[in-house]
From TrEMBL:
Transmembrane segments: none annotated. GO terms for molecular function: acid-thiol ligase activity. Residues 480-555 form the AMP-binding enzyme C-terminal domain. Residues 33-425 form the AMP-dependent synthetase/ligase domain. It comes from the Bacteria. PROSITE patterns: AMP_BINDING. SUPFAM superfamilies: Acetyl-CoA synthetase-like. InterPro entries: AMP-bd_C, AMP-bd_C_sf, AMP-binding_CS, AMP-dep_synth/lig_dom, ANL_N_sf, ATP-dep_AMP-bd_enzyme. This is AMP-binding protein. It holds the Pfam family AMP-binding.
Length: 584
């Protein structure tokens, strides 16, 4: 065990946060069983007003597990979930785990080709899909080991009055029905979830439980930089990260209402809204997707106390609260992840809520949270914060991970802790390149460039793979973006490198104009850059875009931006520093 001497950041922890936690001795499903036994009448999920208590949730999970067992699902089998957030998603997740089988989460909006790769790679034998995902799954089927496809009608999770309203012959009802439901081919052998579960017997209480060392989840990652690969997460990884989260927030049991607007199929949403929330017996208000009006309506009905999210969510909700007077003051804590949290967004959110908004850092391979800003007045917007309990970090030379860089210098972040995964599914070479043994510990190479500041807070500089090398100098896109984003004419920006002849790469800024702006001059961008950026980091080309491509949770996809810029280099909506500025 490390001591405070080699973990100096422990002295900056919020009061009451322990430096270390015991390793879990029970699977993830034990948290649900405990919540159901100790808080059976507490509301576990609220989906658009339809509530399920913890006692009822456990009964639904037992029956669903019995249904899956009747399909031949056994310990170690992979079961694909191709579902948006819903009450049934929660049930299916815990039912698969209860059997000792492995959950494989998928983005429900994926194409058949994207699904085919992941389904084939995982070897999933059963796919539980919402109706809209059935067609692409069926199209992918011949390339996979899937033997059973089960269709799920998400509208069945709605309150009875809303289910009846969907049948009304009005445009609004038709639109809502179309967004939730789809026709399922009758001759394709697809089973119906509601019928399957209704006919099933609950799994007997004496059925063997999974072991803490059993694989619980294959979470696919790497889609923005290459072919997605499955991170292998065991019950102990998920259980310990939920425990670390509770130690960090110091939430009590059965006291919190958590808003689940992050997708469950993403590691951030899965941990904070499925495993962490159940560990603390929280009421989870489930949203099928993030929508400001829907969140505000839920806030009036069942006010949140804790909200995980991404910066655009907090920005849009804060703006709506300022504009409409919506009361968000019940939200005493929020955690932002997946991308940098602008200091202005944090300030604005804390002003309208009166609560804290802190930044967290992690990756799918760390289950996912590894660092966070303290949930206290000592939070530091704009930094990744401090390592979690039982977690250690190193900042090293990217070319030689055994050599630590001097404090204050940029280097690659390495993380060691009980939440660090064991490797990628059937990818031994990539696992070996990501996990390294140093001083008798296993470390994960994050690929992120960071600086540890004097007060031990870690600041992200950029992704190693996205660093732009121009004229022999390293340009860190996020630093250029942060500066340009403050320019009055610019609402948002993504900085990328494109082939630049003798320079190696040329710095290009893809910008979205601020509301009311009709153009932005290259000369003005250059003058703005000179205030804080070295000359080699100045954008050499400017591309105006209507919007920036983003992932499902809102992260800007620089790789896609680069592809789009390269495909339109001859268009008139970009400016080179040596070209005249086009008209509006």
């Amino acid at each position: 065990m490390s001591t405070s001497d080699d973990r100096p950041w422990i002295s900056s922890y919020a009061d009451g946060v322990p430096p270390d936690l015991p390793l879990p001795d029970a699977p993830v499903t034990a948290a649900l069983a405990r919540a159901a036994a100790e808080h059976p009448s507490r509301v576990a999920t609220d989906f658009m007003g339809a509530v399920t208590t913890y006692g009822a949730l456990q009964r639904r999970v037992d029956r669903a597990a019995g249904a899956l067992h009747s399909l031949g699902v056994r310990p170690g089998d992979r079961v694909a979930l191709v579902l948006p957030n819903s009450a049934t998603h929660v049930v299916a997740f815990y039912a698969v785990l209860r059997l000792g089988a492995v959950v494989v989460e998928h983005n429900p909006t994926y194409t058949s080709d994207e699904l085919a790769h992941q389904l084939a790679d995982s070897g999933a034998v059963v796919a539980l899909c919402w109706e809209k995902a059935v067609a692409p799954v069926l199209e992918a089927l011949p390339r996979t080991a899937v033997r059973t496809v089960v269709a799920i009608d998400l509208s069945a999770d709605l309150p009875a009055i809303k289910r009846v309203a969907l049948q009304l012959p009005v445009a609004a009802a038709r639109r809502t029905r179309a967004s939730m439901r789809s026709r399922v081919p009758r001759d394709a052998g697809v089973l119906r979830w509601d019928r399957l579960v209704r006919r099933a017997r609950p799994l007997p209480a004496g059925h063997p439980h999974p072991e803490v060392e059993d694989v619980a989840l294959l979470q696919y990652t790497g889609g923005t930089t290459g072919t997605p690969k499955g991170a292998v997460l065991r019950h102990r990884h998920l259980a310990v990260n939920a425990a670390q989260g509770q130690a960090w927030t110091q939430h009590g049991e059965a006291t919190e209402t958590v808003y689940a607007a992050l997708p469950f199929f993403h590691a951030f949403g899965l941990t904070l809204c499925l495993t962490y929330a159940v560990r603390i017996a929280a009421t989870v208000v489930v949203f099928p997707r993030f929508d400001v009006d829907t969140v505000l309506a839920a806030q009036r009905r069942r006010p949140a106390t804790f909200m995980p999210g991404v910066p655009p969510m907090f920005e849009r909700l804060a703006e709506a609260a300022e504009r409409t007077g919506a009361d968000l003051t019940s939200i005493t804590g929020a955690i932002s992840g997946a991308m940098a949290l602008p200091a202005e967004t944090a300030r604005r959110w804390e002003t309208v809520t009166g609560g804290l908004l802190v930044e967290g850092y992690g990756m799918t391979e760390t289950s996912p949270v590894a660092l966070g800003s303290p949930m206290s007045a000592d939070r530091r917007p704009g930094t990744l914060g401090l390592p979690f309990p039982s977690t250690t970090i190193r900042v090293v030379d990217p070319e030689d991970p055994t050599r630590e860089v001097p404090r204050g210098e940029r280097g690659e972040l390495l993380i060691s802790g009980p939440q660090v995964f064991d490797g990628y599914w059937n990818r031994p070479e990539e696992s070996a390149a990501t996990l390294v043994e140093i001083d008798g510990r296993t470390w994960i190479r994050t690929g992120d460039v960071v600086v540890v500041e004097e007060d031990e807070f870690v600041r992200l500089v950029d992704r190693i793979k996205e660093v732009i090398i121009t004229g022999g100098f390293n340009v860190y896109p996020s630093q250029v973006e942060e500066h340009l984003r403050a320019m009055p004419e610019i609402q948002d920006v993504a900085v990328i490198g494109v082939p630049g002849g003798d320079l190696g790469e040329k710095v290009v800024a893809a910008v979205v104009l601020a509301e009311g702006a009709t153009r932005v001059e290259m000369a003005a961008v250059r003058a703005w850059s000179e205030q804080r950026l070295a000359r080699y980091a100045h954008p050499r080309e400017l591309v105006v875009m209507a919007e920036l491509p983003r992932s499902q949770i809102g992260k800007v996809l620089r790789r896609v931006v680069r592809e789009q810029v390269l495909s339109r280099r001859g268009a008139t909506d970009h400016q080179d520093e040596n070209q005249p500025t086009p008209g509006p």
